[in-house]
Amino acid sequence: MASTIQKPGAQPARAAIGAFVGTTIEWYDFYIFATAASLVFGHVFFPQGNVFLATLGSLGTFAVGFFARPLGAALFGSLGDRAGRKNILAITLLLMGGSTVLIGCLPSYASAGVAAPILLVLLRIVQGIAVGGEWGGAVLLSSEHSDAKRKTFFASFPQLGSPAGMILSILAIRAISSLPSDAMYSWGWRLPFLASALLMIVGLVIRHGVHETPDFEAVRAKVANRPPSALEVIRKMPRLLLLVAGANTVGISSAYFLVVFMLTYTTQYLHIPRTVILDCVFASTCLQLCVNPIAAWLADKVGVARFVLTTSLITCVTPFLLYPLVNQATSASIFTGLAICVFFGAAFYAAIAGFSASQFPTEYRYSAISISYQGCGAIAGGLTPILGTILAEHFPGNWVPLAIAYSATAAISAGCIGILMRRDSPVVFKTAAASTVSD
Predict the structure, then answer these.
(1) Residue 34: partners with Cβ closer than 8 Å, 6 or more residues away
(2) DSSP one-letter code for 179
(3) What is the percentage of the chain residues whose pLDDT exceeds 90?
(4) Confidence band for 80, pLDDT divided at 50, 70 and 90
(5) Domains in the chain and their CATH numbers?
(6) Measuring CA to CA, which residue among 121, 131, 130, 129 is closest to residue 64?
(7) Which of 1, 38, 237, 367 is spaced 20 to 30 Å from 78 by Cα?
């Protein structure tokens, strides 16, 4: 056992790379579904005749995955707190990749009727359960291998998986978007889903060489026979869970305002060609990939709490620059608007994982960070594209309600972070923070 507790010099970097690659694949699978839900699934899996209702139905299947994520967080969080981070992450990767490949094999509504969307929903639920267990474990796999001074930086590597997965998914969708409509809706959309099989194998091979984290090895004997930690977390620190969930709000919702809903908004309400918006989203996501590690490094230098509070407050303003620029409907204006939001949103997203993990003790950390993040994701992520579509439909030509909705998510994050920073918070906050390795 001693050999696994040691922390060889190569392990922190290997763990960070393993966490990055694994989450990249998971988010590729998740974003492939999100992009297809905006551009394809309304045509493939739902009856035609009312574009608005078909779009809502398609985005509804997207939202179902978010509602399943807290279940995955509780299930795999409890297992990860008792059995370790590494083995659980192999299971979540297999679940995610397998369900994605099966989605690529589904029949259409035209050939299978109502069975097609039902099967799509069921596989989407499996995707949501897998992501629910993946994110928290990946953050801990990376951060718990690092030293105390660089925990935010190493915790940001799984966050890099989000833009990297998005880039891969956009490249995949972009590659098939030039197909004729008949080919796109019959077989072209399936190719990115089937490609997940190869990516899944690559991820499993890379993660195989990563040891269990030193932090978990230090408490392994203590937690081996403990009841499910998810129940203990919910019972002992419900307010802390809610505050950390609230702190994550804009980090989750912004991705779906800027990508999933933006694809729907620009193509259906502004009639911008989908290749144009895909190119702009791709460029802004590349910007996010560059900003993330720099922002996480800076957060470790200036203080992670101060950093996430500042960036969330700035993000309250950026939506009011985004929508007027997007409404100009040029490639340059769309990219500029997205880039402004992505710059500060990426900075926040890079640091919020380390901030969230620092709130909880090691023996409950997998469950706690997963439940708080995925509970927030069920609402802030799953409902964001639907809310945006409803606002765009009911306020045609008026971008202000959209900007207010986006800004409100940033205000929620800032408020919760501010409460977590207060030194006169209830004892449970101090106890949880005092138990972490980073303090």
Answers:
(1) 62, 169, 256, 259, 260, 385
(2) S
(3) 34
(4) confident
(5) 7-434 (1.20.1250.20)
(6) 121
(7) 1
